[in-house]
């Protein structure tokens, strides 16, 4: 049981990490000086948000199982 709790904690930590990175990238996109830089950070923010979503799905599946 201890391993399961540790795994869920680790997964939740990853969710938080990727959500924070997505948020920082969104902020950088808003502050970008040109369109290319803005686009770069928007794509990166979407990537990190997608990773966070994927980890949330894994957590949800493990909780249901």
Helix content: over 70%
Total helical elements = 2
| Classification by helices and strands | mainly alpha
pLDDT averaged residue by residue: 92
What's the helix-strand series? HH
Overall, the morphology is: elongated
Please compute the radius of gyration using only Cα atoms.
15 Å
- Count every beta strand, where a strand is a DSSP E run of 2 or more residues: 0
| Low-pLDDT residue spans | none
Provide tags for this entry.
mainly alpha; 65 residues; single chain
In short:
This protein has helices at 2-31, 35-64.
Written overview of the protein:
- The protein is an all-alpha fold and 65 residues long.
- The protein has helices spanning 2-31, 35-64.
- The relative contact order is 0.17.
- The mean pLDDT is 92.
Fold blueprint:
Layout: H1 2-31, H2 35-64
Helix pairs in contact: 1-2
């Amino acid at each position: 049981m201890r391993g399961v709790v540790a795994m869920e904690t680790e997964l939740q930590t990853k969710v938080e990490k990727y959500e924070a990175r997505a948020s920082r990238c969104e902020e950088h996109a808003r502050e970008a000086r040109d369109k290319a830089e803005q686009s770069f950070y928007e794509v990166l923010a979407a990537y990190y948000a997608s990773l966070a979503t994927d980890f949330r799905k894994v957590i949800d599946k493990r909780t249901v199982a």
